[in-house]
Give the backbone structure.
Amino acid sequence: MNDRVADNKGALAKAIHSGKWMLYGTATQKILSVATFFILARILTPEHYGIIAVVLMITSTTNLMTSHGLEMAIAQRGVDVEKYLDSIWTLNILRALALAILIFILSKPLSIFFHIPTAVNILRVGGLLLIAIHLINVRQIHFVINLDFKKLFWRDFAGQIAYTISALSWALFVQASAWALLVGHMARQIVSDVVTYIEYPCWPRLSFKFRPLLNFIGYSKWISGQVVLDYITNFIDPIFVGRMLGPSNLGLYSKANELASTATATLLSIMRKISFYAYNTVQSDLQKIQKGFIKSLDVIGLIMFPFSFLIFIEGEAIVSMLLGQRWLLLVVPLKILAIANFLDSISGIFNPVFNILGKPKINAYATLLRLISSLALLYFAAKWWGMTGVAVAILIMAFLVLLYNIWESMALLKLGWRKVMPSILQPVVSLVPLFVLFLFLQESIHKIENAYLTVVWLILLLAIYAISFLLLSRFFKQGPRNTIIDILAEFKHKGDLIS
């Protein structure tokens, strides 16, 4: 029994410390990605971003709709993965070739559907992205199994650097067009592929032994099915925008959504991967799961409250300063989507809890709720109110899903409001001095119209929030402050964050 407890603690500590590299990787990628966008936004137009959004939407959709989920299925079943990997790699290459050919054939009707008739060639070449994606070393799955996120960090970092250099070079020295973005995406994937072979120098071989893989189809179909359902739910709004509002509006909307979800995507990407592994070690202990959930809520509240609030009150200043006047049309959708992403960030921490408590169907029902409500709302929202209407529809869906998650969790987690309130109340109260300062000085600051002053102003607002948080934390026995202390201590010393 003691050995098992020790194993649990060791596994959990390993997950936490591996999370450092996930944090470094995700944060670094986001910073480089956003910085690259801020530069390219001064060179390229929203229409260029709309075209590349269509290319990525088509390649991602075809890839995920035909995904088999065998890699994760084999890894999770605890079998020897090595003897299956060459067959999976071969299957992926054949699938990618077939999809690339299909996209090439359908490129013209697809360009007409999305109102980009001049972008037929870029759609055709875009299909090659699928081949590049699946040329990656299939044995990188060992990095995930062994929680070796350091190798994944270097893979992703090298890829992002390649994207930045390639896209900027093409836009500056060859042509300022959507081709610059496609070249960047292609360079990122090729460099990422090369890094995986350097990190794990074992070349896959063509193997047509597909019959043994059939044993895992029954399990993998649920994994791939959930991935497909999540993808459709998350990308149905860009499809409506691209089809009904055109490439320029799609470029604006996609970037508004990307900026609004910058903090959300970073946090949830890390927390979901770490928390599921952590919860898995204590799945029979409801009290530890409760504590883990509260700590997740602490982190979300501490970071997402000020991030979303700052975008909501100063979105126009941020967009005008960083992107320029031609991107101002994304300001209103950006503010609305910032609130929606905040709600989604809270919903996101329920996902691993429901899975580990043996209720994955709740996550499936939540996804179906979002999908059904989106089909009902998005068409009329886009038709009557354009991008702003689509953003409002996304906000309504996020609110409905959060209410559903809270309702379902009440019986499972058995957490009273008294345990949850410090996680919410402390960040909210800490925002009050920031808001007061904003009301008194915002108009005077923006009258000067100086970019450097705007940067100082935004930093000052965040500093006021941080100071308020630190001062108020003295009056809260529980809440985000204690969780941050625990996390920082865990980064320095091995231990059990949830115990």
User: Anything to note?
Assistant: The chain is about 85% helix and 0% strand.
